[in-house]
Design a protein that fits this description.
Blueprint: E1 3-7, H1 12-23, E2 27-32, H2 44-47, H3 50-53, E3 57-61, H4 67-77, E4 81-84, H5 91-94, H6 98-119, E5 124-130, H7 153-172, E6 175-181, E7 184-185, H8 194-206, E8 213-215, E9 221-222, E10 225-226, H9 227-237, E11 246-248, E12 254-255, H10 256-266, E13 271-274, E14 281-284, E15 290-294, H11 312-318, H12 326-339
Length: 349
């Protein structure tokens, strides 16, 4: 039985990856931060289910800012694989807490790599990299060979993590790989992220709990996929004969505006727009009710306008491609927020 450690196991990707590995027969160990109120909703079904009873799913207190603790955990657990998904993951918030973001996202990765080097260099390591590395893009679409041009403290920290992973791979012959994942969403996405903000907003509007949704740059273009598809690519990277870096993406780009239109369309509302810039608003074409407004508080200090991934290498070498389409993803998220308001983390999602 293989053993895996997942940092960031309480997050969207961590919960899907834990389920995926458990289904593969792994013993999964998750690292969670100690706090007075634990954010474990996404993995509670694993913590109280058969996998916990069989001791195949175990949680440990730890933190990417504590190298001594990481050393002890890796030494005692003796994992075959480590998936570093832990991060301060909100790009806009990284402008408010740049030092914390850098310590966790950048130096946290270094701490893990140092632990692997010292405890057991045979451990296979996955680093959750990000399409935000490309920032103000140098070319479209973006592949593994596209120059990086980060535009946020989050992206700069992830850039350090990317290169320190490559450096430790080259310097110490570690099996260390970067997954450069483009945007991936699900019903488990945090409510502060724009996609989930839209789908929860629609649910609240339908149920009379909210009047409208306030957004930022609705013309930003992103390559959106389903998180449940992307964790398979993470696992496949660590099953190869040699380590490498891979872009994971759908190869399609859509605007936030399109996401809004399809999400409202799914609940029978035809969204129409009026105005320009910060004065633009979205209305229900049938009733004239204002449903979307724009606020400058949700714009980033430096914006990333377009991200579009070229996952040719991943498709060819890993035999991976996304299964859930853009429209299916939106429908899944809207349906979840409408039908499972108090039960958002069922395994089928």
């Amino acid at each position: 039985m293989k053993k895996a450690i997942i940092t960031g196991i309480t997050g969207q990707d961590g919960s899907y990856l834990a389920e995926f590995l458990l289904d593969k027969g792994y013993e999964v160990h998750g690292i969670i931060r100690r706090s007075s109120s634990q954010n474990t909703q996404r993995i509670d079904h694993l913590s109280t289910g058969k996998f916990a009873e069989e001791e195949k799913f175990v949680l440990h207190f730890g933190d990417l800012s504590d190298s001594n603790n990481l050393n002890k955990l890796i030494y005692h657990i003796e994992p075959d694989e480590i998936y570093n998904l832990g991060a301060q993951s909100h790009v806009k918030i990284s402008f408010d807490v740049p030092e914390f973001t850098s310590d966790v996202n950048a130096i946290g990765t270094l701490r893990l790599l140092e632990s692997i080097k010292e405890v057991n260099p045979n451990i296979r390591f996955y680093q959750a990299s990000s399409s935000e590395l490309f920032g103000k893009v140098k070319e479209t679409p973006q592949s593994e060979n596209t120059p990086f041009n980060p535009r946020s403290p989050y992206a700069v920290a992830k850039l350090y993590a990317y290169w320190i992973t490559v450096n430790y791979r080259d310097a110490y012959e570690l099996f260390a790989t970067n997954g450069i994942l483009f945007n991936h969403e699900s019903p488990r996405r945090g409510k502060t992220f724009v996609t989930r903000k839209i789908t929860t907003g629609i649910s609240n509007i339908i149920k009379g709990r909210q009047d409208k949704i306030i957004l930022g740059n609705i013309d930003a273009k992103r390559d959106w996929g389903f998180a449940g598809d992307y964790v398979e690519a993470m696992w496949l990277m660590l099953q190869q004969d040699s380590p490498d870096d891979y872009v994971v993406a759908t190869g399609e780009t859509h605007t936030v505006r399109e996401f809004c239109e399809l999400a409202f369309e799914h609940v029978g509302i035809d969204l129409v727009w009026d105005g320009e810039g910060e004065n633009e608003k979205g209305f229900d074409s049938a009733t004239g009710k204002e449903l979307i407004s724009i606020s400058s508080q949700f714009f980033r200090p430096t914006e990333v306008d377009l991200l579009l991934g070229d996952a040719t290498k991943t498709q060819q070498k890993l035999n991976w491609k996304p299964k859930v389409s853009f429209k299916e993803l939106i429908h899944m998220m809207v349906d979840s927020d409408l039908n499972n308001y108090n039960n958002l983390y069922r395994k089928e999602y």
